[in-house]
Design a protein that fits this description.
- The protein is an alpha+beta fold and 314 residues long.
- The protein has 14 helices and 11 strands.
- It has a domain of 207 residues: D-Maltodextrin-Binding Protein, domain 2.
- The strands form 4 sheets. Strands 3, 8, 9 and 10 form a 4-stranded antiparallel beta sheet that branches.
- It comes from Paraoerskovia sediminicola.
- This is Extracellular solute-binding protein.
Length: 314
């Protein structure tokens, strides 16, 4: 089924020569931004992360109540940003695991985001809270780098800003490149213990490749299938919330631009659960740098993996 799914979704279900599921959705990243806020303060849509930083400074200087974005420490966002920056901190081969956040991509993100933290350019607001949605709705949070599944969440959670938001490609680490990463997504698999594997797979095929895909797209899901991503109907959609912009043109290209080679840990859920107590401390304690926090996060992931019977190197 190679070619049936977008690159990020397909890579996520492969391990070596094995295919362990079918992608149900993906989350290629894009820059969601409040055009009304940008226009009011003369902010151009940034195409690089250096421009993003300069725009964040200009915006916050113009109105100290407005921030370019909000981040109180999020493991998924951090990993996606490292992915886009070229980092590949995880390598997995069966029970042999390597974890190394000293790679150039990881350090590039840590240094860039540290500047934003140090200069107070990021609103210290946890995602998915009422305060976060309020900021997205009233313009005090002016942009969001996140997965392509975000539009229905903005429409329902930040309805007050209808017509103001737009979508742009992710800013690049190197000017002129078109490199992207995933932020979220999902898959369905048939378990070995299933008593009716053929029936289970038939449902997977319906939901993830067949007619069920359009049903989910109609409900606001972002598809992982290239047929839907490349269809005229999908690409021509122009939601009123986004000012009539054909946002799926941007999001479909974002899916095509996802860089290959990323791997997650076999125990990624645990790694995510300890982010706040390790790397996340850099957001609330000035004595801890983000790079040091990520190093602490790495140490904890290595220890846990070895304790669980994996052979983990760093």
């Amino acid at each position: 089924m190679d070619g049936t799914f977008s690159p990020g979704g397909w890579d996520s279900v492969k391990q070596g020569d094995g295919i362990y599921g079918l992608p149900m959705g993906s989350g290629p990243m894009a820059l969601f931004y409040n055009k009304a806020v940008f226009d009011a303060h003369g902010i151009e849509v940034p195409t690089t992360w250096d421009e993003y930083y300069e725009s964040a400074k200009k915006l916050h200087e113009a109105d100290p109540n407005v921030y370019m974005t909000a981040d109180a420490g999020d493991a998924g966002f951090t990993l996606s940003m490292i992915w886009q920056a070229g980092g590949r901190p995880y390598s997995v081969d069966g029970t042999d695991v390597s974890i190394d956040f000293s790679d150039e991509g990881s350090q590039k993100f840590a240094a860039q985001w540290q500047k934003m933290i140090d200069e107070g350019l990021i609103a210290d607001i946890n995602g998915w809270t009422d305060e976060w949605f309020q900021g997205l709705g009233d313009g005090t949070i002016a942009s969001l780098a996140t997965g392509a599944w975000m539009p229905p969440n903005l429409e329902s959670g930040a309805a007050a800003a209808s017509g103001d938001w737009r979508v742009a490609p992710m800013p690049q680490w190197i000017e002129g490149e078109h490199v992207n990463a995933e932020n979220g997504g999902g898959a369905l698999s048939v378990m070995e213990a299933s008593e009716n594997k053929e029936l289970a797979y038939a449902f997977l095929d319906y939901a993830n490749v067949g007619e069920g895909v359009q049903t989910r797209v109609d409900q606001g899901s972002f598809p992982a299938t290239t047929a839907e991503l490349n269809s005229d109907e999908y690409l021509e959609a122009a939601p009123e919330y986004f000012g009539g912009q054909k946002i799926n043109e941007v999001l479909a290209q974002a899916a095509a631009d996802v860089a290959p080679g990323w791997q997650f840990l076999p125990y990624q859920s645990y790694a995510t659960s300890i982010f706040a107590d390790t790397a996340g401390r850099a957001y609330i304690d000035d004595s801890i740098s983000l790079a040091d926090g990520i190093a602490s996060w790495q140490d904890a992931q290595v220890k846990y993996g070895n304790d669980q019977g994996f052979s983990v190197n760093q």
